[in-house]
Amino acid sequence: MVRLFFRLAVALIAAVLSVTAVAEEKTEKDLAQELTNPIADLMTIPIQLNVDDNIGLNDKGQKTTLNIQPVIPFQVNEDLNLITRTIVPVVRQEDIVTGQGSQSGLGDINVQLFFSPRKPTSSGVIWGGGAVLLLPTATDSLIGAEKWGAGPAGVALKMNGPWTYGGLANHIWSFAGDDDRADINNTFLQPFAAYTWSNNWTVSLQSESTYNWKQQEWSIPVNVSAAKLVFPGGLPVSLQAGVGRWLETPDAGPEGWRFRLQANIVLPR
Questions:
Q1: Model pTM?
Q2: Can you tell me the distance from the alpha carbon of 220 to that of 187, in angstroms, rounded to the nearest whole number?
Q3: Cβ(159)–Cβ(182) below 8 Å
Q4: What is the pLDDT of residues 123-141, one digit of tens each?
Q5: Distances (CA, A) of 254 to 94, 102, 116, 182, 263
Q6: Number of structural domains the chain divides into
Q7: What pLDDT does 23 receive?
Q8: What range defines the domain where residue 196 resides?
Q9: Among 12, 105, 137, 254, which is disulfide-ready with 52 (CB 3.0 to 4.6 Å)?
Q10: Alpha-carbon torsion, ordered 172, 175, 179, 181, to 10 deg
Q11: pLDDT of 213-235, one tens digit each?
Q12: Given the DSSP bridges, would you call strands 102-106 and 147-160 parallel, antiparallel or unpaired?
């Protein structure tokens, strides 16, 4: 009887551990895919490093941008969230403006606010709408617009099995700032698609295109990246590496290839 009880206990424990392992694996995979949603109900701190080359009228400039991008959700009520996405750029650039050498410092901060239903629509669409704000926080006039800006913002996406696809868009008009600097009238478009495997790997394809209505010029990069969700010290972190190519830029814009590294830290709530 004791031996039979021991065997049953071992079998029960093994079954519980097996179910728990499967549940944890599913949770990790779901989290890896949820990180592809820009308005997910998650508190995260993406830290993103971008390197662009062949900038300026002589194509000799280089720019390195470290974007610190905290995403903080707030529950407005039982049906609605407010998702705040802030982009704080730290810039180092060299030989972009002829005869000006190098500049480094804080760039202009971009704040995006999205009101989003807590549940998808009946067709599975996740969406949000709100506003974008541009703050003239640059510590050097050559790495900032020196303009205040604002405008509408929206995002819509769908998760279909392992796929996530959708787009984010906003438009910024300047309304105050240095009168000697060019006004801002820019549309930003970010279509994206991602595929997440059960081993927590994600591959994504996206663009971060801008149309300048004043100059009637496009800036269009196409970016491909791979990310892996890991748990150093038990804290979820998505590590990402990617490469991109500029398809269209103004005369003084970046050309050729671009490179990206990112760590997306998920914080407990």
A1: 0.88
A2: 12
A3: no
A4: 999 999 999 999 999 999 9
A5: 12, 16, 34, 20, 24
A6: 1
A7: 35
A8: 2-267
A9: 254
A10: -10
A11: 999 999 999 999 999 999 998 89
A12: unpaired
